[in-house]
Design brief:
Helices cover 31% and strands 18% of the residues. It is of the alpha+beta class and 329 residues long. A hairpin with a 2-residue loop joins strand 9 (284-288) and strand 10 (291-295). The longest helix has 20 residues, at 2-21.
């Protein structure tokens, strides 16, 4: 009996050692029945693919691989993907409709909040939760810069990098193709505008203001030549609002503090999650800049204060673009 107990204790010690050295994180990931790297809800609501079949068009290429490279997963004649709408919750820049105080200039904060909730896997967001998150961003700006009004792309990127579960990359002079590539790969884009040139009568700009505006690009439709946006300043049709490609691209202008006008460089922010894993691996990585760091176990994950809901599934081809850095232990 004593010998059996000793063997049992030794087994437990070995098992604990394995758990400490191997990442066995069971991430909170959306269901993916056919294990093709696309969540079931994405297959049904975004790409119109078969959630029970990893190769919907039976052309020998998995659905997620075709989408990653910009091809249609439902047509087997090498057709290009021509329409995508990411399932991102909509948040108005004044979630409660008050349009007072910071809530009349909350387009940057609402844009950040929408993408934060997307990477957390939320399909809807309560008004109070939206306002609480945005108020945190208002307060951080007041502390850092003495004002929460008119955050340009650089301030917006800092807020994203420091206070959200995703990363920001500032892109000058983007192209339609480069934006579509990000959207194809399930990464929403924040765009900065001289809002008057968006030609949207539902945005209540002040006639004496800068017309600066920030929105989230959630998709595109080549059949109509339009981007699909969550325009948080549109008081009537902001959710999935459509903008002609040329209209949107020609209105791109970052805010310039020296002139207090939206007459700066055409600029957008590409986004990507900080916590990722592959479909068939339990390993979770922390991404920052061009580096990836393996989080070695659940204890470390929790000790770092990471959010389980923030883990996103990515493709190996994309993750390979990051350089291996020291493990997070």
């Amino acid at each position: 009996m004593k010998k059996i107990l000793s063997i049992y204790i030794l087994y437990l010690i070995i098992l604990v050692g394995i758990l400490m050295c191997t990442n066995l994180i069971d991430a909170k990931i959306l269901p993916d029945y056919d294990n093709d790297g696309l969540a079931d809800q994405e297959e049904e609501k975004v790409y119109n693919t078969d959630r029970n079949n990893p190769d919907t068009d039976q052309d020998g290429y998995p659905d997620s691989l075709e989408i990653f490279h910009g091809y249609s997963p439902v047509q087997n004649n090498a057709a290009r993907l021509n329409k995508v709408t990411l399932n991102i919750p909509y948040i108005n820049e004044s979630p409660d409709g008050s349009w007072t105080g910071p809530w009349k200039n909350g387009c940057e904060e609402a844009s950040i909040a929408m993408i934060e909730n997307f990477y957390l896997g939320n399909e809807t967001v309560a008004i109070k939760d939206s306002m609480d998150f945005m108020m945190t961003l208002f307060n951080k700006q007041d502390q850092i810069w003495g004002s929460n009004a008119d955050a340009d792309a650089y301030r917006t990127a800092k807020l994203i990098d420091d206070y959200t579960n995703y990363n920001a990359i500032i892109i000058d002079n983007p192209t339609i193709a480069s934006i579509k590539k990000e959207l194809n790969q399930k990464r929403p884009v924040i765009s900065f505008h001289y809002g008057k040139e968006l030609q949207n009568p539902n945005i209540p700009f002040l006639a004496t203001g800068s017309y600066y505006h920030v929105i989230v690009l959630i998709g595109y439709d080549d059949t109509t030549g339009e981007f699909i946006a969550h325009d948080n300043g549109d008081i009537k049709t902001g959710e999935k609002h459509r903008y002609n490609y040329d209209v949107l691209m020609n209105s791109l202008n970052d805010f310039v503090f020296e002139t207090r006008q939206a007459n700066g460089t055409p600029r957008v922010i590409f986004t990507y999650p900080k916590l990722v894993k592959l479909t068939n691996s339990p390993h979770v990585y922390y991404l920052k800049d061009n580096d990836k760091q393996w989080i070695v176990n659940e204890q470390t994950f929790n000790a770092q204060g990471f959010d389980w809901a923030a883990i996103n599934v990515v493709r190996q081809e994309w993750l390979d673009n990051f350089t291996e850095d020291a493990d997070i232990k």
